[in-house]
Amino acid sequence: MDYRLRTATPADETWQLAIYASTRADELAMTGWPAAQCEAFVQQQHRAQQQHYARHFPRSVCQLILVGDDVAGRLWVDERGDRLHVLDIALLPAWRGQGLGTRCLQALAAEAEAGDRAIGIQVEIHNPARRLYERLGFLPEGEPQGLYQAMLRPTPQAEECLP
């Protein structure tokens, strides 16, 4: 499946919200909240995430993942000198499980390697995506912090030094 990345713009806000909402759907289904309350919660959390990323990662770039003309998800990356840090990678449900996320991360890994940089990501400890990251060479970085584990895909040179 071929894909391309396009920098998200303010005109993509509806897509951004839909992608974010899809990542919270299972969690919200367990709340028993009315649909309007779930929608208000997702909108508030989405705005908070956008503001947090803008404030704390001002050089980060959010890109939509496109398959043909269809929006499939987003990849949000912060460049940090010696590493690329994935703030978020999320696919809409219809695009999950088809290897698209793997291909996006493999392309990011190739970009990182070309610049002799590592890739970092933070993942919920019990998130099934952690297995994908491990298959792609990400290793735990330090101890878990609450529900999250920082992971790092080292540069090829650094991998040579690992036991």
TrEMBL record:
Gene3D superfamilies: 3.40.630.30. It comes from the Bacteria. Keywords: Acyltransferase, Transferase. One of its GO terms (molecular function) is acyltransferase activity. PROSITE patterns: GNAT (PS51186). SUPFAM superfamilies: Acyl-CoA N-acyltransferases (Nat). InterPro entries: Acyl_CoA_acyltransferase, GNAT_dom, YpeA/RimI_acetyltransf. It is an enzyme of class 2 (transferase). Its EC number is 2.3.1.-. Pfam families: Acetyltransf_1 (PF00583). Residues 3-156 form the N-acetyltransferase domain. This is GNAT family N-acetyltransferase.
